[in-house]
Amino acid sequence: MNVKIKIIDAVKSAVDAAISEGIFKAADNLPEISLEVPPKKEFGDFSTNFAMQSAKIFRMAPKKIAEEIKNRISADWLDKIEIAGAGFMNFYLKPDVIYFELKNIFDGLENFGQLPNKKNIPIQIEYVSANPTGLLHVGHGRGAAAGSAIVNILRAAGYNVESEYYINDAGNQMENLAKSVNARYLQHFGVEIEFPENGYHGADIFDTTNRIIERDGDKYLNLPESERLKILENLAYADKLAELKTDLKNFKVEFDIWFSERTLHPDKINDAVKVLKERGEIYEKDGALWLASTKYGDDKDRVVIRENGVPTYLAADIAYHKDKFERGFSQMINLWGADHHGYICRVKAAMSALGFDADKLKILLLQMVSLYRGGELVKMSKRTGESITLRELMEEVGTDAARYFFLMRSIDSQLDFDLDLAKKQSSENPVYYIQYAHARICSIFRQAEENNLQVVDAPNFNLLTTDSEIDLINKIFEYPAEIEKAALEFAPQRIARYAYDLAAQFHSFYRDCRIIGVENSLAQARLALVKITAHTIKHALNLLGVSAPTSM
Description:
By secondary structure, the protein is α/β, with parallel strands linked by helices. The chain is built from 20 helices and 14 strands.
């Protein structure tokens, strides 16, 4: 068992005992017991502020709470507990404990970072879901990085996760795509035509049109307008979707399910409207059908079917989320742009109106990304004069740097992306700093092999006693808890920060602790610790969708 779990369990047992004895007041809303590694070794191996967090609940001074807990903890792995400050509990482990825990990690290294299975908790995550009418831009890139990292982290935390892309392939945007490609197609062959008012002017429309022409020539030129539009819509849609999938794959993003909006029209939308009518949640006004969403906290009721009989975007979203709920997920997570903030309430209102538990649907909002080059805000692409695409970003800074920089900050905070820093090959660049740690470890193993030094099955970890060694070991111990927290908080930035801190701890170890040229048993112990470190760095980078190079 992980030593942190042992401490948490010991604190829980002590609290339960104090409650049963009438010392503490029984409560259902006790704070989570969390452990941190103190900034200085003299403050112990782990500490918790649980006593301070529970003071209001127990109506007792934090120091008194800490004393009562301390008096009820006794374990052969624990050296002592000290109470400091306003009520911090500092835990000091017996020396052999960390070596025993380290050996457990070493013996099961393949599975380190994979938490116990929670397959009875199926989760669905839907993200990116950009219209298939143009190239992905950097905002989509942040959503793609965050969504895929959250999927990876949840899976590492033991959850059964299904990822989904909702293809907005119905409605006006597809008609506008067809009209745009049609105009460029005709213009290519010298036909004068006014470009549609709501058409897409991007350079990628020329690219799509040219690919169609390269393959089919003027095959569609003399067809009736309506027939040509329909054919070009299907061809352009296939082309755009293929480009979108290619860019995502190059960005290390893949989906389990690609869900087409077209499959909702008309049957699933009609079915959702019918259920809402039967439940008395829809009424007619001015020839349109309205959802009574104000009953569920929305600021106004919403049109579901227009007076001309055409469903609104909300109608499709209601049918789509109804389909999600019916698939039986314990939780559904959507990553939306911050501009969709006002849409959350109406979708949740519709789910409540359908009789579902709307709390099972969680919306994560992604804040904006600003790109900077040379200290100046970059607004437009040099190539097209329009928004910078994800493809261009990958070309400029590389996939690894793009993903890591997107994931460094919480998704609900504005991100200033420094293009110059992302390209630097120095310790100033956080992703380079982490990757260099892994490459340096690989170099150590190459040198060890040249010196006939190998990792043995039973290294003597008790020889690892310096501060740099112990600090590195304790940082490794933190990893499973970081995965658990990152999963519960949908916070990939926790893993990004952990990977950086682990790399920093390793660089300090590398500076202070030689491997080649020291006594053989010590060298083997240090080499085994380095092997664990390499695995942990690589595992963390894999969760972020970032590579772990063997040389740099």
